[in-house]
Amino acid sequence: MAESSHRTDDPLSRALVLAGSVLAEAPAGLLTDFDGTLSPIVTDPALARLVDGLDEALSRLAERLAVVAIVTGRAPHDARSMTGVPGLLIAGNHGTEWLEPHASQTTAGLDPSVAEASLDAALARLPALDGVEIEHKRLSATVHYRTAPDPDATRGAILAALGDVTPLGLELRHGRMSVELRPAGGGDKGTATRAIVERFGLRGVVVMGDDVTDLDMFIAVAELRASGAVRGAIIGVGGEDGEVPPAVAEAADVVLGDPIEAASLLHRLAGG
């Protein structure tokens, strides 16, 4: 059963009531995706940045809560650089590579050399395609096609070229205008979420995300909540064009309009 949001007039107000009550259940934590959640989607992934001023809210929340974690498909050091908040826990590469607050080195549950070799072999299958950009992150890779002239046709061409990646020990997942490649059985945002909840003994947990790659995180919290292990709030975030995958909207307790509205929520939760 979903947490009661004591319905008010708009999604932001509902999210504030729900998340505020959950975070009052100490020890509590905030686990959030980055792209499309804290940062607007941009055509060049390397240019993604937090919504202006959000670093201050995240810093205040990190001081107050047991943990604030960025659970992202990004490489951990890239995510830290883009947030500019060193006090956050980063569970990068879809939760398979971790960067502790203020640490300089990451830890991974996978052998990076093996994963990198498999990803290299899969990506070598791709021909040059207009509007396609490859983001290789050692433990995972993202093939972006947002700027392709015909995204649907380009997605089909990417999938056809990659073929069956199972013999390489990889699995393929879809994101918003992207195809994700990652080691099979290496973990995901859901296993990372469960690990964070257990490690910090969380009794309250708020999760935020915008894409189908965040559903593992949403499902983990929904299951923990249903078992009575935690109080949880699941918050979906839309895009400027209203692009919210139906599965994300269905899994969320409340859906905010865009990263600007998500930033407003976090500012209010932080007391800003």
Give an overview of the whole structure.
The protein is of the alpha/beta class. The protein folds into 2 domains: 181 residues, Rossmann fold; 72 residues, Alpha-Beta Plaits (2-Layer Sandwich). It has 9 helices and 12 strands. The strands form 2 sheets. Strands 5-4-3-2-1-10-11-12 form an 8-stranded mixed β-sheet, sandwiched between helices. Strand 11, helix 8 and strand 12 form a beta-alpha-beta unit. The radius of gyration is 18 Å and the shape is globular. About 2% of the residues have low confidence.
Would you state the CATH class of the largest domain? Alpha Beta
What is the total number of structural domains? Answer: 2
Distance between the termini: 31 Å
Integer average pLDDT: 92
- Relative strand content: 15-25%
* Estimated helix fraction: 25-40%
Unreliable parts: 4-8
In brief:
This protein is an alpha/beta fold and 272 residues long. 36% of the residues lie in helices and 20% in strands. It folds into two domains: 181 residues, 3-Layer(aba) Sandwich (Rossmann fold); 72 residues, Alpha-Beta Plaits (2-Layer Sandwich).
